[in-house]
Amino acid sequence: MLPGAFLRQAPALDPSDRAIVEHLQEDGRRSFARIARATGLTEKTVRSRMRHLLDSEVIQIAAVTDPRALGYHSSALLGLVLDPAAPASQTARKLLSVAVIDYVVVATGRYGLFAEVICRDRRELQDVIENRIGAIGGIRTIESFPYLSLYYQLANFGAARRKSLQEAGVVPRTLARTDRDIVKALSENGRMPLQAVADRLGISESQVRNRFNGMAEDGVVSVIAIVNPMSLGYGTVAWVAVRVGNGVPARDVADGLSSLSHVTYVAICAGRFDIFSEIACRDEAELLAIVDNDIRPLDGVMSIEVSIYQHLHYKRLTPTARP
Questions:
Q1: Whose CA is closest to 107, among 78, 64, 134, 72?
Q2: Contact 77, 142 (CB under 8 A)
Q3: What's the gap between Cα 178 and its chain centre?
Q4: pTM to 2 decimals?
Q5: In degrees rounded to 5, what are phi and psi of residue 60?
Q6: H-helix or E-strand containing 93?
Q7: Who's near 217: CB < 8 A, 6+ residues apart?
């Protein structure tokens, strides 16, 4: 993996910065002029504030897609049980140094920490768990939930709140080689001019534009501002682990979860739980309402376990060093 900084959690974004980020969450390639017209700011101010948000690592603008398009074919969520004598924040900092970890959560509940590991293959995944994470002090046990399908992801938190059946996040899809190369370029810099992408790939700008627009319309890729949801006022974010009842396809339950408001991530897993789903809420009351009114009644949900985030660190995926 190429170097990538973890996003900083901003204690509070002022209204102007929040408005700019919300526009970039809808479309990371939206022009400065259009954002300026919508927010009442000058184009110069929008440009300056966006540059500050990028430089201070509050946001990154990149392509969000199926990790396989970037060369990662084996992923897992790890639930870590910690030694009570070792502070969770200290152990989390050690995990952040492992290059293939893109997501670390200090949480309540059974697991003091969660870490998402995105690897090129199962061999690398096993090696990282045994030799990198297993060697970190303060961890009592590691429970691995390998992804059978990263079923759904939606990094636009505003869209997650108002989600309807017509709104979609990114879904896994097999891509042609040229499409993968376009996605890789935009994962490094989501605002890279399409002519620059074309020059890199040795094809025409119109080909790049048509292919990118087609992937975006099909829900295969989205170029947006990636931001820690807690920076946008989502004070209660949680993993909801789901066990699916006998005789019910996990994909059916995953479909139901993906359609719910506030759900931003759904992974079908192997292990103790069948599905992990991330939910971004304003407060505990909102989380409780979604869990009780929307998730528990879903057909096929046998039991759930909720782990609330205390702190969240994550970074964008970058292409693997080898194809």
A1: 78
A2: no
A3: 24
A4: 0.84
A5: -135, 140
A6: helix 88-95
A7: none
End-to-end CA distance of the chain: 11
b/e for 164-196, b at 16 or more Cβ within 10 A? Answer: eeeebbbbbeebeeebbbbbbbbbeebebebee
Q: Give the tokens for residue 166.
A: 């017509």
| Exposure on the CB side of residue 195, measured as CA atoms within 13 A | 0
pLDDT tens across 276-303, in order?
A: 999 999 999 999 999 999 999 999 999 9
Q: Are 80 and 111 in contact (CB under 8 A)?
A: yes
Cα–Cα distance for residue pair 276/265, rounded to 1 Å: 8
If phi > 0 it is left, if psi is from -120 to 50 it is alpha, else beta; for residue 227 that is beta
> In this structure, what are the phi and psi dihedrals at residue 191, rounded to the nearest 5 degrees?
-105, 15
Alpha-carbon Rg for the chain in angstroms: 19
Q: Would you state the structure tokens that stand for residue 43, as one six-digit string? A: 């184009």
pLDDT at residue 280, as a whole number? 93
Amino acid at 18: R
Backbone angles phi, psi at 307, to 5 degrees: -125, 115
The position carrying tokens 């900092």 is 93
Instruction: Give the separation between CA 66 and CA 6, rounded to whole angstroms.
Output: 19
Give percent of the chain with pLDDT exceeding 70.
91
CA 77 – CA 62 distance, rounded (Å): 22
Residue 220's closest CA among 189, 180, 280?
Answer: 180
Q: Which residues contact 147 (CB under 8 A, 6 or more apart)?
A: 75, 76, 77, 267, 268, 269
Residue-averaged pLDDT of the chain:
89
Tens of pLDDT, residue by residue over 68-115, are 877 889 999 999 999 988 899 899 989 988 989 988 999 999 999 999
Report the half-sphere exposure of 96 (CA within 13 A, side-chain side): 18
In angstroms, the CA 151 to CA 170 distance is 9
